[in-house]
Structure formats: structure tokens, C-alpha cells
Amino acid sequence: MTQPSLRHAGINLGGTQEDPNADAESGIFGFWMFLMSDAVIFALLFAIYGTAVAATAGGPTPRSEFKLDSALIETLLLLTSSLTVGMGVLAMKYDATRRPVFAWMGVTLALGIAFLFMEWHDFSTMFSHGAYPTRSAFLSSFFALVPLHGLHVLAGCIWMLVMGAQVLAYGFDTRVKINILRLSLFWHFLDVIWIAILTVVYLQGHVS
Amino acid sequence: MQTAHSPIWPGVLGRFTWHDLPFVRAWENPTASEMIGAAAASLVIIGFVVTVTLLTRHRAWGRLLEWVTSLDHKKIGIMYVVIALVMLSRALVEAVLMRMQQAAAVGDPGFLSSDHFSQLFSTHGSIMIFFMAMPFLTGVINYVMPLQIGARDMAFPWANSVALSLTGGGAILMMVSLVIGKFSTGGWSGYPPYTGLAFSPDVGPDYWIWAVTLGSIGSTLSGINIACTIFKFRAPGMTYMRMPLFCWTSLCTSILMIFAMPPLTVATALLALDRYLGFHFFTNDLGGNMMNYANLFWLFGHPEVYILILPAFGIYSEVVSTFSSKELYGYVSLVLATMAIAVLSFTVWLHHFFTMGQSANINAVFGIATMTIGVPTGVKIYDWIWTMFRGEVRFTVPMLYSLAFMITFVIGGFTGIILAIPPLDYVFHNTLFLVAHFHNMLIPGLLYGLLAGYTYWFPKAFGFRLNERWGRIAFGCWVAGFYLAFMPLYVLGASGMARRTHEIFQPDFRPWLYVAGFGALVLLAALAALIVQLVVSIRERDANRVFAGDPWDGRGLEWSTSAPPPEYNFAVIPHVDGRDPFYDGKRKDGYYQRHVAYGAIEMPRNSISGVVIGLGATAASFGLVWHMWWLAGLSMQLVLSALIARSFVRGSHRTISAAEVTATEHRWHAALDADRPTPRACELSQRNTGLAEIPA
Amino acid sequence: MSTRGTRLVAGVVAVLALSGCGALDHGILNAQGPVAQHERDLLLTVSGILLFVWVPVVILVPLIAWHYRRTNSAHAYRPKWDFSWPLEALIWIPPAGIVILLAFMLWPATHKDDPYTRLAGRGAPVHVQAIAMDWKWVFIYPDEGIATVNQLAVPTGRPVHMDLTSGTVMQSLLLPQLAGQIYAMAGMRTRLNFAADRPGQFLGENVQFNGDKFAHQKFTINSMAPGAYAAWLARAHKGDRMLDGAAWARLSRKDTTGPQIFSAVPRGFFERVVAATGGAAHPHPNAKHQPATRKAN
């Protein structure tokens, strides 16, 4: 039986075995579909936010609550982490030694955690103004959209720790490589969502 | 926030009270309605106890575990269908109860309390959509599609098992709601603000939210899995335009699942935030807006209609072609029509609420978009008609379902176009006319199709044919019952009778309600006939074996294996060079080629983690429903741990040795050599051992 | 079948057919106002057109299936025949043509029968504000300063302009013989226009499920000749029941009630109900005098 030789572009799994490359092909493809499904969830939450942004019910407004400076720092943290996670994947592809991969992933993890701290700080500042999600439809939709992104980042951080443990346990076997590539796709996806949040939530809140 | 606490250990039992047990309610207030509720709860408990006893008596726990932990797409498919049939029985009995109540309740309160009646229509709808139709079609796709494309399994066998467990968990939650507490009264669509905390503070809507959420997450996973399998795991030579039509409709359905399930998840999640944390998405106060819910729900709900119907369309395409002994007419046009329906299904959701007060322009645009879907659907019907044209039609049970479908479905299309016209929708919306319409689409368009598929592929899955006579009786009852039960509803709807009505004050409606009630009983008889058919067929199984695997002179690759197929499906992955590879192949010499030796095959090992995740999610949902926070927290931790633990598992495959494969294949080939080919005239007799005679 | 059996079946069918007509008399086929009449005519026209879709399938499916049955040797068997351009044109073009035809009918009809479209009046319009409650309807006549519960009196022939909102969950007001239906939603206002052509009593009902006594939430629309309507108004004014806070609290209880009349209603009562339930978002952009804004509360 002759099969077209599949080699996944993102990871170097070696050219001789056929199965691992096929696994990578379908595994990564399936993960893309999951991301698209997840993107629909965010798209809908953006739409809900759009319809609810004016429904402040006399409570806090976007202008009174959103701080552009911290949003800017959060953006920089996430964008930098996207670069470092990409470097990590490249290191895995070409070096396949632990140290550079751990270094890049460690930086990414640190940036992710820093982002989460910043975000938590933002939320607690809002709470201190009485800007709770129970106050108005606007705040409800904000606290459904932005913390969901935060939860994704948290999930990404946990995932990164799990992958670290797996690298220690198994080295760079096929499944570890595929999962690290998926993780990096997930991380880039979160960046894209964050850019949309920055634009639709934070910037729009100050423009309008 | 809700502050009702249980008087009994509130920290442990949350808001549970003794009154949440139907037995206690029936004891204190022995009305017919409460008695029926207690009887239903007893049935669930007795069913559970009997199952446990039988499993223990027959020492079958090991085999059960072997099944539920299996990652084999065939076993998973069968388990989905079992869930669907169990839930079908419950939801059909509920439908009969509702029709009896309405027939009895003309100018009279009837025998069911209003609250009980409302729970019945809510569970009936939720079960039929999420725990009958969805598992049934997912199961059939799971079983058949990999065999048709010449694959050994799904792309993600483990995710398949997780999806099954989540769907099963949702179904368990539905059953538990019969025994502990009550279900939502807000209908299958769960519209807030009625289902919000302010108007329904009880556990009912929470049961609905979590059962549906489990089902929808499971379906999203299934969708990804099915689509990825079709995109990446087709046998060499199986190009897109050579795929059996069932694979095309499965592909479109799975893509719809990937994009249409998230809106449902968002809708239920936001409703849960409203109910649990006091958010204001759909409340009446502080800026909440229930119109967002209507949009979210139907953004899922309309594509869902096609998620349900497209696989049945695929089954009809297979069945009509096979039992006409003829190539499918207009393959390309059927593929295009399927794709068109899938795309258009995202552009029409607003027709579910023409009456919400948006402008006439918007209504008109969505009305026209809705009618447009009628075109590809009509094309499909004609494609099947022209498939029979110049064929040799055999009136087997699956074919009878297909014929009944074509005639009946067009009536539903007729009334569908009427409802698509906004001024007419203003009159018929929310009346029994609408109820009649969507049952007219879903019973022929989904149930007949899945029953046709069940009868058609059953011999493949279990190795013996189903009893034909009882199949015909069931068919007759399903069709007669449908007409008797739903044609009167068109009349009642056109007379202004609202749906979900517990009591009727118009005596003129009585005769029609009687007819509809009688029709419901006929449908119940159809279900009984289906069960009898299964029992009789299992008893007679040895006489009806079709081990050779091809009882119907089939066309696709699924018929080219033994029945039931070996775990690995294909010892050698087939090469495909046409649209009906098996039909054309077996007409050439030497198709059933015996190899001297076969290679070893790797298949996924069983895994317990899918079940753990499913049951953990179910327990977490139960905890959330009853505000047993400890249970919810622990169960979610369990789910997370199982997920992480699974990612550490290596060696998740086992190797089926070359010797074992060779022995299996040689056994099958020996049977093939011994079999006498069956001419089509004898295919319903015991002579049919699954080797088709090739006419000269 | 025996003669007696036949007679019994015939009798049952006859009874059903007769009472069937009785049932249909309560619906759109027995339309009693201009909106409903137009909708009924549209229904009949569309059904006529759709027969061209339905009849061929109902004839062709059994005919072809039976003629090409396996046991009939007197037909051509072409197992490889699977395509024909003329047939393809035949199955795509006529359905598309029918849909295009229906689309051209749908657009003007949707505008004409839009619940928001004011009727060309025969006489001055009557303004009514409907508030959906659990499980009753409250109708305010703002021009008259009176209100009714579970009954609606309208002068025969004159157009009725109804604004709707809900004091509770979403409901839907259906007038089967007079007009279609429109949702009533808390914090929002929707609109329904209709008229009754002749005096008589017609049904109005909520058709969106809203709890226990949903089935009871029906009322009578009394279409009265001008003189009788004037007399009814005069009687209504004479009473001494005010729709005050206490009365509203009673109406807000989840329960059913018989018909009631309030002889006085505070000004702006309806608007306050809309505002009190949160929004004042308006789903319909065409209704210009109701700006689509969100009011805070």
C-alpha cells in the first residue's frame, strides 16, 4: 500500500515513520476545528457584549471602569508570550533538547501568570468601585467575556505545567511534540482573542 | 441569589428536601398526577435494580465494563443507539400521557396537574432532540461512516468515548430528574425570563441547563471527530466525490455541530450565570434582554434541525439506491443540495421569532431565505424518485420507510413554506399548527430515516437480520400513528389552539383531540412492535445469520466485511476506484480475495478515563442542580485529574497479532466459500446468508 | 366489512367532518377583520401554489416505486443510468421558480400585514395598551382613562392600535380571527393593529407558555356597534374603581381572574410599567416616536 508521505510542517517527527506524521496531521487539524468552535463562543460573547454595552442601568460605564494603561501592559505581556511560545516550538523542532524548550516555555508561563495577576488586579479594582457583574447587563457581559479569556489563559498555564512534566517523563516523544504544538496554537489563539477584547472592549470603551 | 436550604444537613444535601421525592409527594397528596409521577420514578428505580441484578446474576459486569470503556467506534455507535432507544421509549410514553390528558381535559382539569403536564412537554422535547435524535444519529454515523470510508476507527477514539459518556451522563441526569426533584416547565427551548431565577426558582431549569450542556459539549466533540475522520481518514482513492452520500451528509452534519453547538452552550451557560451568580443577561431588570437568548438559542436551534435531518437524508440515499439496485441519480446534485442546505441553515434562525417585533424588512428577508431551503430539499426528493426510475425496487422495511418519508415529508415542507411567510406565521406561531409542522418534519425526516438505517445496518452490526414481519407491523404503526396523531393538530392549530395547553375550553376541539390521542396510542404500539421485533429477531438469530456480510447486495465498503465486522474493520485497507466500490467490485472476478497471511494491526486499547470524565461531569452537574457545592467541586476536580492523567498514558494501543488477523480472515473466507449466493428474490428468507448473487 | 361496520365508520367520519368545520370556525379560515382576511386569502393562494409542489411528489413516488418494482419484468432496468441534464433542469428550475414567485408575494404581504402597520382607518383609531400579566391581560384605554382586565371592547369597523408590554415573563397575544400575534416582553413595547368587521365576540389568548394557569389566559374581544360601544364606555366611566397601587398589586399576583373594569387609570401608567421592568428597548426601528434607547432604572 502506498500512501502519500505526510510530513507535518510544524514539527519534526522524522521522515521514516508514516504513522506519527499522519497522527500529527489529523491531531493538529482536529485541534484547529476545536479552536474554530471556541472562536464561535467568543464571537457570540462579543455580540452579546455589543448589545449590552449601553445597558449600564445607571451603574458604572465603560469609560469609568476601563484603564487603558493596564490594558496596554496586558497586551504587551501576551504578545511577548506569543513570541516566546513560538520560539519554544522552534527550539523543540530543531534542537529537541530540553533546556531551550524549558527556557522559552518558562518565560511564556511567567508572562501568562503576570497577565493573570494584572487582570485580577483590574477586576478587584472594578469590584472596589461596586462594578460587580450583578450590577447591570453591561457588567454581566463584560464579566462573561473577559474572564472567560482569562480562564483560557489559566488553562493554558496549567497545560504548560503538564507538558513540562511530560517532557521530563517521556522526553520529546510524538505525543508530547503534537501536544506542545497544539498548546502553542491555543496560546496564539488566545492572543487573537485578546486583540479583539482590547479593541472591542477597552478601546471602544474610551472612544465612544 | 437563591437561599433555599435543605432542612436536612444543608451543607451536604444542598437544597434537597423530602418533598423532592415523588413518593413523598404521592403519599401526602395521592392524586392521579402524583401517582403517575411516583410510578415513573419507581420505574426508573426498578429498571436500575433489575439491570444491576441481571448484571450480577450473569456475572456480566466485566463485559459491561469492556463495552463502556471501549474506544471501538462500532461499540460506541451501538451504545449511542441503545441510549437513543431507551430515551425514545420514555419520551414517547410522555407524549401519549400528554395527548391523553388533552383528550380528557376538554372543559375539565383532566388527570394530570398543570405542573406535571408542563414537565412532560419539557422533558419530551428535550429528550427527543438531545437524547433520542442526537445519540441515534451520532451512533449510526459512528458505526457506519468509518466502515464506508474504509477506515479502522475514528480520528479521535478517546474523544469519541468522552463524547459518548457526556451524552450518556446527560441522559442519566434526565432520568434522575424523575426520581429526585422535578424537571423544568419551560419547554425544550427554555426561554427566559420564565426559566430565570425570578420566575422558576426551583431545580427544574437547572436540570435542563446541565443535561443540555452535557449533551451539547458531547455533540461538539462528536462533530470535530466525525469531520476530522472524513477529512483525514478516507481510504486511498476515496476522493470526496466518491464518498457515499451518507458520508457527505455526516460531514455536513458534523460541520454544523462544530459551529451550531457553541451557541447553545453559550445560551445555557449565560442562563446558568443568571441563575447561579445573579448576572443580568436575560432578566427583566438591570438591562437584561431575553431577545439575546432567543437569538442565541435559535442560532443553534435552526442548524440543529439540519443536524438532525441531514444524516437521515444520507440514509435514504443509501437505502433507495440499494433497494432499487441502481446507482444514485444525481449524485452531484445531491451533494450540492446537501451543502446548500448546510450553509443556508445558518441564515434563517430568525424565522423562529417573526413575532418578536423586528421590522417587516428583516422578517421578509429571513422569510425568503427560509423558503430558499425548500429548493435543495425538493431537489433531493426528486433525486430519490429518479433513482427508483428504471431500477428494480424491492419493498423491504427500510425502503418502505423511505417511500413513506417522501410522501409525508412533502406535507411538512408544504406547511413549512406556509410558516416561512411572516404574515401566516403571525397566525400559526405557537399554535398546534407549528407543533404538527415540526413533528411532520422530524418524524418522517429523522425517525423514519434512523429506523430505516437501523433495519438496514442491523445485520451488519449484529450478524443477523431483523424480523421482517414485525418490522412491517412497526412501520405500519409508525406511519398510521403519525397521520392520526398529527393531521388533527394542523386543524386545531388553524383553529387557534395554543401549544402546551393543559386544559381546553372549546368543545369543538374534542373530536380532533380524540383522533390525535388515538394516533398517539398507535405510535406507542409502533414502539411496542419495534421492541417485539428486536426480541423475536434475537430469538431467531441463528436462522437469520448473514455472516458473509452482504445481505442486501450493498454498494458501499461497509458491506465488504463480515457481519459483524472484526474489531479492525479491514484487514487490508481497500483501494477505491469508483462511487460504489463494493457493488462494482464484487461484479468483477476475485473480489473476495483471500491472502495467505495478513499483517498485525494496532487498535486503541480500552480506557476507563472517558467514563470517569462523563460520570464526573454528571455528578458535578447533579451537585450544581442541588447546590451541593462539595459534590460539584470534587467531581470537577475528578474530571480535571482524569483529563491530565489520560495525557500521561503511553502505549494506548494494543497490537492484534498477524496470526489472529489471519485466523479471523480465513474463518470468514471459509464461510464465504461455503455460502450459496442469495438472489434478490430470496433476500428476506432464511436462505440469505449474506452473500449476494451476482446476476449475469 | 359488514354494512353495519361501514355505516359506523361513515357516521364517525361524518361527525368528525362536521365538528371539524366547527373547530375551524374559531380560526383564521373564519376571518372577521381586514388583517385576518388578508392573511386567510394569502394562506389560500399560497396553498394553491404549493399544490404544484405537493401533487407531483404524491403521484410520482407510489407510481414509480410500483411500476419499477423488482417483480415487474415489463420495465426497463438501467442500473448505470444516473444523470440527465433535462431532468436536472426539471428538478431545479420549477422549485426555484415557485420560491421566486412566493418571494414576490411575501415581500409586500409582510409589509402589509406587519403588526406595526397602521390600518387605513374607517373612523378614528382606538388606542389600547395591553399589559401581559400572570395569567391575565390588562387593557388600558389611555384616551378614555379607563382600563379592563380580561375583556376588550372595540367599536366595530374602527382600527385598533394596540401597544403591548409585559409585567412578567414573555407572552404572545394571538387574536385568531382578527389578526395574528405579537410577543409582549417586559421592558419593551411591541404593537398590534387590527379591526373587527362586524359585531360579535371573538377570542383573544396568550399562546406563549407562562406557567400553571397558562391555558386559562384567554379573554373575549367584544366588537360593538358604535352606539353600544359608546354606552359601554359610559358605563365603564361610571364605576369607582381606580387602577391604583393596591389594585396593581392584586393584579400582579400569579393567578387568574374574571373580567374587570377600572374607571380610572393614572396617566402614563403603561409607560411606567415599561420603565419599571428595566429596558424600554424597542425591537422595531420603524416606530420612530419610540426612540430605541435603553432607559436605566
Describe this structure in words.
- The complex is a heterotrimer of chains A (208), B (696) and C (297).
- Chain A contains six helices and no strands.
- Chain A has 208 residues and is mostly helical.
- Helices cover 79% and strands 0% of the residues of chain A.
- In chain A, helix 3 (68-94) runs antiparallel to helix 6.
- Residues 1-6 and 14-18 of chain A have low confidence and may be disordered.
- Chain B folds into two domains: 7-59, no CATH class; 60-545, Up-down Bundle (Cytochrome C Oxidase, Chain A).
- Chain B contains 21 helices and two strands.
- Chain B is globular and about 75 Å long.
- Chain B starts with 9 loop residues before the first helix and ends in a 22-residue tail after the last helix.
- The relative contact order of chain B is 0.10.
- Chain C is an alpha+beta fold and 297 residues long.
- Chain C folds into two domains: 26-72 and 79-112; 126-276, Sandwich (Immunoglobulin-like).
- Chain C has helices at 3-24, 34-67, 85-112, 226-238, 245-252, 269-276; strands at 126-133, 136-141, 146-149, 151-155, 160-166, 171-174, 181-184, 190-194, 200-206, 218-224, 260-262.
- In chain C, helix 2 runs antiparallel to helix 3 (85-112).
- At the B-C interface, helix 6, helix 11, helix 12, helix 13 and helix 14 of B face helix 1, helix 2, helix 3, strand 7 and strand 9 of C.
